[in-house]
Amino acid sequence: MMFWLLKDDLRLYLKNKYRADEITDNEVEAIIFKLVSSSHEPLYEANKALFTEMVEGFFFRREDKTKQDLFVRLIDFDDVVNNIFKIVNQFEVKGVQETRIPDSVVFINGLPLVVLEFKSAIKENTTIYNAYQQVTVRYTRDIPDLFKYNAFVIISDGVNNKYGSLFADYDYFYSWNKIGDEETLAEGINSLYVKYQRPIGNDVFRARWENDGECGLSVWYDAFECREGTKSLAHYTAGEFAPYSVITERKVGKGRVILVGSVLSHDDILRLVDIPPILEASENVTLTRRTGKESGMIAVETAGTSGRLFLDGEYRDLLTGRTLCGNIELAPYEVLVLRK
């Protein structure tokens, strides 16, 4: 893609937003030209100026000099439904010397505000820091114009997730792992898991597993029509998508690909991957199975508060030699290595 603005979205937003002010086509094009011209400055200066205009707005001199200057807001913060939101995967940007393709770009009213870069956690030679370098070194060198509108970037290796300013050092990138201000920070897989602890409520869409039982959904809702070779694992029973599938499965080689159209409840995630709960425990206690000669489990309190664990029989803590059973209280950051 040659241009880093979705100009049609920006045009549509401006025409709808300022229809009552009788904004003209020429004025819309002049505003777009102003934004493009501003982006010709060096990256830091352009980002600072454009971001200020996006947040605070600016006055625009009307084509008809008898009319009062128009105060333009590029994002409608008062009524968010007036904005045009798009997420574009594999967004191709042609630089001066090289074409770059960020994994995902979030646009609001045609403005590329957020860039997301992902690396694979299963590849030994790639880490989340490689995603940081990809954005802050290679992308800013080859396609700096894309980032002159940038609010922040998100990086992930599939397990760890961080976000921060394009100009911030890696150490100042913040873990992407909280829904509410009262929640504590987590790293690694917990930064993914916490998102499923308190999903956004759903009063419309309902779903059931094909082999019986309700399927809990939240946050977003996609529907799929199964074709030959694809099996439905769960389908909508209420809402505009009924009776289409919300979870599908397709066999590929010796494995399978599962497509999920919503954020599932924690219990339904375990059901989907066919993993029964290890033991009953509070949300701040992470449980990991131990296999081999000393089979059992490891329990770790991760939030710095008291935790709770229910043992279904007698276990020996290999660290202290204690015999434990029933309801167990864990101290902040306590670790138990248990053998039944």
Q: How does this model look, in words?
A:
The protein is of the alpha+beta class and 340 residues long. The protein has three domains: 1-198, tt1808, chain A, CATH 3.90.1570; 199-272, no CATH class; 280-339, Sandwich (Immunoglobulin-like), CATH 2.60.40. It contains six helices and 23 strands. The strands form six sheets. A six-stranded mixed beta sheet has the order 3-6-7-8-9-10. Strands 18, 19, 20, 21, 22 and 23 form a six-stranded antiparallel beta sheet that branches. Strands 12-11-14-15-16 form a five-stranded antiparallel beta sheet, with no helix packed on it. Strand 4 and strand 5 form a beta hairpin. 24% of the residues are buried.
Topology:
Elements: H1 7-17, H2 25-38, H3 43-56, E1 58-60, E2 70-72, E3 85-89, E4 93-94, E5 99-100, E6 104-108, E7 111-118, H4 128-142, E8 152-156, E9 161-164, E10 174-175, H5 190-193, E11 206-209, E12 214-215, E13 217-221, E14 230-238, E15 245-252, E16 255-260, E17 262-264, H6 266-272, E18 280-281, E19 285-290, E20 296-301, E21 307-317, E22 323-330, E23 335-339
Parallel strand pairs: 7-8
Antiparallel strand pairs: 1-2, 3-6, 4-5, 6-7, 8-9, 9-10, 11-12, 11-14, 13-17, 14-15, 15-16, 18-21, 19-20, 20-23, 21-22, 21-23
Helix pairs in contact: 1-2
Strands, count: 23
Q: Mean pLDDT across all residues, rounded?
A: 82
Number of domains: 3
Strand order of the largest sheet: 3-6-7-8-9-10
Ranges where pLDDT stays below 50 over 5 or more residues in a row are 189-200
Per the principal axes of the C-alpha atoms, what is the gross shape?
A: elongated
Major β-sheet profile: 6 strands, mixed
Radius of gyration: 25 Å
Q: In which range does the helix fraction lie?
A: 10-25%
Coarse structural class: alpha+beta
What is the rounded distance between the termini? 59 Å
CATH topology of the largest domain: tt1808, chain A
Estimate what percentage of residues fall within beta strands.
Answer: 25-35%
Order of helices and strands: HHHEEEEEEEHEEEHEEEEEEEHEEEEEE
Please tally the helical runs, counting DSSP H or I stretches of 4 or more residues. 6
Under CATH at level 1, the class of the largest domain stands as Alpha Beta
Q: In CATH terms, what is the architecture of the largest domain?
A: Alpha-Beta Complex
